[in-house]
Amino acid sequence: MSRSIKKGVFLHKSLFLKIKNNKLENIKTWSRNSTIIPDMIGININIHNGKLFKKVFIVEDMIGCKLGEFSFTRKFKSHSKKIKRKKK
Predict the structure, then answer these.
(1) How far apart are CA 57 and CA 42, in angstroms?
(2) What DSSP character marks residue 66?
(3) Distance, CA of 40 to chain centre
(4) Tens of pLDDT, residues 69-83
(5) pTM for the whole structure
(6) Beta strands in 39-85 (DSSP E)
């Protein structure tokens, strides 16, 4: 379910201030639920995934998505492959 238009997008206050002040530097954030806005285009943001920070470069196609969508919290291990046996 999407957020109400009346409320607007969510962007953490401290993250918004960092974007306005430090346009060119890397920004560290723990706010995975913040929405990507057009002011963030071209910025490297380090998003915390629970263990370490993942570096994400913001491009135009990401606008409207949440920051957490680009920093996975779980590591996917592939499913086991079935071994084909020769018939006798």
Answers:
(1) 7
(2) B
(3) 12
(4) 998 888 888 887 777
(5) 0.77
(6) 44-48, 53-57
pLDDT in tens, 4-63: 778 888 888 998 888 888 766 788 999 999 999 998 888 899 999 999 999 999 999 999
Do 34 and 11 touch, CB atoms closer than 8 A? yes
Per-residue pLDDT, 23: 62
Q: How many CB atoms lie within 10 A of CB 33?
A: 10
- Write down all domains in the chain, each with its CATH number in brackets: 21-70 (3.30.860.10)
Alpha-carbon torsion (22, 47, 40, 57), positive or negative: positive
The CA distance from 48 to 54, in Å, is: 6
Long-range interactions of 52-59: CB distance < 8 A, separation 24+: 53/28, 55/26
Q: 30, 42, 37, 33: which is closest to 16 by C-alpha?
A: 37
